[in-house]
Specification:
44% of the residues lie in helices and 17% in strands. By secondary structure, it is an alpha/beta fold. Helix 1 packs antiparallel against helix 2.
Length: 508
């Protein structure tokens, strides 16, 4: 893999940014063709069969379908906007995006509107997913046309002629097996994809086979990428969050998930844990409306609450701590969104801010899934800019019997989108920079902290901790399309316990 492949990643990003600023494009049109060519040329690690017209890349397709609106093949007009009005949310049916918190609504039989609050990096991630989806549906369409045209006896003609017919049991398994032969992939992985799609694989294949490649149009209604457009919602979010911190003597800010930190602080969870319930069991318990109401009331009495933030902003939780401190736990931000959220909250909290912790998941370049990475600085792909962090977390913060490895002493690579990264680029950063892993939000967070210190908004003594657990291993093709499952709870809670221990042990 040479220079041409590496440059293709940058060219893809440049073309995608131009499309966003222009305001529209057709994934199957001329601009989309340029994106498809560059994606194939860049040879993404998570997309090994992009350039093979005879083989459907089932794992890549599974990856992107979880990051696109449910039943994406049913939509021809997709509107991308920064926010959706309450009236729109009231009048139209919601559409789920399984692996992304993107509010989306069906506005017509084949039209959809969705929001992107994270700005350019989030949009590049979306365009990468759409481009992969278009490549794979083009392959399906070509195979269907060839099979129908030749009309040869046997599976090639049978599978395309029976796609629209309802089937179940052995007949359905036979259909999936016939498709796996057509797609030149494994039956097992195609059957798993059908499960992830809740049994709608035949519906997707039938739609791809019969649609026009230029059917879909995507319109961007806002000037994404302009800094001023982020600040309004960030300011609202920060003001609402800070209103619940008026009595706090000092504040600790954590960006993580919405379950592990509050679970460790919740008296209701503590009670059930003492009865022997594991973390998976706690999750199942709260699926009951009665148990959830009971927990909410117990947490409220203990000073744990969820802040009513603006629609589309990260969920935010506040909890009281001993000694009059408080901890703010915000859900993951997307790209540059993190900078503006942190910046606005720092403006309000000022010298009351005592610590900042960034907890997330990332692709690892040095270890295995479940391993923990504690970086000492960040490197920005494309610019080589370096952002240092005096990480207060260390290997000693994890138990001796921790079943995964803890990697320290190197940087994290911040990229605009994980899907477009190829082996050549990732290997270069691993071998020449000692990069531990690949992520998307770290630099905006760290930059917000550094700027606030330089401007005198927060104390230079603020402790900063950064930890990622490895959700995939891109250089081995071990992707997020195959979830960690219950094993993933171990590193998540180990990192969260390390953060909470650090917060509670800080000098009063």
């Amino acid at each position: 893999m040479g220079l041409e492949n590496r440059l293709a990643v940058d060219e893809f990003t440049t073309l995608a940014r131009g499309i966003i600023l222009r305001g529209y494009y057709k994934p199957g049109g001329d601009s989309g063709a340029g994106l498809r060519r560059l994606m194939i040329l860049s040879a993404p690690s998570l997309y090994p069969h992009a350039g093979d017209p005879d083989r459907i890349d089932v794992q890549a397709l599974r990856y992107v379908l979880q990051r696109l609106p449910d039943r994406i093949w049913a939509f021809r007009d997709i509107t991308v906007t920064r926010s959706i009005s309450p009236m729109t949310a009231r009048d139209f049916s919601p559409v789920v995006t399984a692996a992304r918190r993107r509010p989306a609504y069906r506005t017509g039989p084949d039209s959809l509107v969705t929001t992107f609050r994270g700005g350019m990096s989030d949009l590049l991630d979306f365009i990468s997913a759409i481009t992969c989806y278009q490549i794979e549906t083009d392959k399906v369409r070509a195979k269907a046309a060839s099979g129908r045209r030749h009309g040869e006896a046997g599976p090639a003609s049978t599978v395309w002629d029976t796609l629209g017919e309802p089937c179940s049991g052995d007949r359905r398994n036979s259909l999936i097996h016939a498709l796996s032969v057509e797609f030149r992939c494994g039956y097992d992985e195609l059957k798993e994809l059908d499960g992830v799609m809740e049994g709608r694989l035949p519906e997707f294949v039938a739609s791809a086979a019969d649609s026009d490649s230029r059917d879909m149009k995507i319109t961007f209604t806002d000037r994404f990428g302009l800094f001023g457009s982020y600040q309004g919602k960030a300011r609202q979010w920060a003001a609402e969050t800070a209103s619940h911190l008026r009595d706090a003597r000092r504040v600790h800010l954590v960006s993580s998930n919405t379950h592990s930190l509050v679970n460790l602080l919740s008296p209701w969870v503590k009670m059930h844990r003492e009865r022997g319930t594991d973390w998976s069991g706690i999750r199942k318990l709260t699926e009951s409306p009665e148990a959830l109401l009971e927990r909410t009331e117990a947490d409220r009495k203990a000073g744990i609450l969820t802040v009513p933030v603006p629609e589309g902003a990260p969920v935010c939780q506040v909890a009281g701590l001993p000694g009059g401190d408080a901890v703010v736990n915000m859900d993951y931000a997307f790209g540059e969104e993190g900078f503006f959220l942190f910046n606005e909250l720092f403006e309000i909290l000022g010298k009351r801010l005592r610590s900042v912790f960034i907890v997330g998941k990332a692709g690892t370049l040095t270890g295995d899934r479940g391993d923990v990475m504690l970086p000492s600085f960040f490197v920005k792909q494309g610019t080589g800019d370096v952002y240092g962090v005096d990480n207060c977390l260390s290997r000693e913060d994890f138990p001796e019997d921790f079943p995964f490895r803890v990697h320290t002493g190197g940087p994290m690579l911040t990229v605009d989108g994980t899907f477009m990264q190829n082996d050549d680029v990732l290997t270069y950063f691993r071998d020449h920079w000692g990069v531990l892993g690949v992520e998307m939000e770290g630099i905006p967070y760290v930059r917000a902290v550094a700027q606030a210190v330089l401007r005198g908004r927060i104390s230079p003594e603020v402790s900063v901790g950064v930890a990622y657990y490895a959700s995939d291993v891109p250089l081995r093709g071990d992707t997020l399309s195959v979830p960690l499952g219950e094993r993933g709870l171990v590193p998540v809670y180990a990192v969260t316990e390390a953060v909470l221990h650090r917060i509670l042990s800080m000098d009063q």
